[in-house]
Design a protein that fits this description.
40% of the residues are buried. This protein has two domains: 6-105 and 200-237, Periplasmic binding protein-like II (D-Maltodextrin-Binding Protein, domain 2), CATH 3.40.190; 108-193, D-Maltodextrin-Binding Protein, domain 2 (3-Layer(aba) Sandwich). The protein contains nine helices and 13 strands. β9, α5 (136-143) and β10 form a beta-alpha-beta unit. With 240 residues, it is an alpha/beta fold.
Length: 240
Amino acid sequence: MTKFFPLLIFLLAFLSCNKKNELVVLTDHSFPPFEYLKDGEPAGVDPDIAVKIGERTGRKVKIVSVGFSSIIPSIERKFGDIGIAAMTVTPERKKHVDFSIPYAKSEQFIISLNKFPVISRDEFDGIRIGIKQGTTGHSLVRQMDLKKTDLLIYPTTLHVVKALLNDEIDAIVIDQQTAAWAKSQYNQLQCNPLRGTAEYYAICIQKGNTKLLNEINAILEEMISTGEIEALIEKHSALF
């Protein structure tokens, strides 16, 4: 987890002093189609889910972007009520926060240039791999026994994609839907699945906050059963 700058701590501490009917939602606006900025405002699957939770629990929603690696430590410190940012449930993360039921499934994909394709894990040795800091792809690549491979870490999805386009790296490992977004934006890219990497997204909540967790789970169950979340994913994916 990254360290906090004093200004960030002050800002989040201020935001945490909210009214009881306000829901402070922490996210990272750099992971389309799940979260991005549109006309300077938060947009995407996750902000839409957060708004639904606010509506159905009678709370005013305040969405704050803090950077992906800062979401869990911020929730632990009560600087926000929930974290929603296409976050995969992992044993390590469960040590620090509680998670809702999963609301979306994904897997890791490899993005590469058409002129220098990287198709599978077998081609990782000896190349430059870019990842977004703190993501599942970050953890996955670090755990691989790679030889003479450069692992380059970037703060946002756009940074790592631009690095690939500029030939600073040879491949990216990132979530399926975001890989599809990158390909839709740049026709010189191709995407290939990294087999055996299925994962599930969920909302993180401060440990022990059973009331809020139960409320969120009930809302997610309804949104999943009615197809509302699937429709949101299709809607925001089609915008690119």
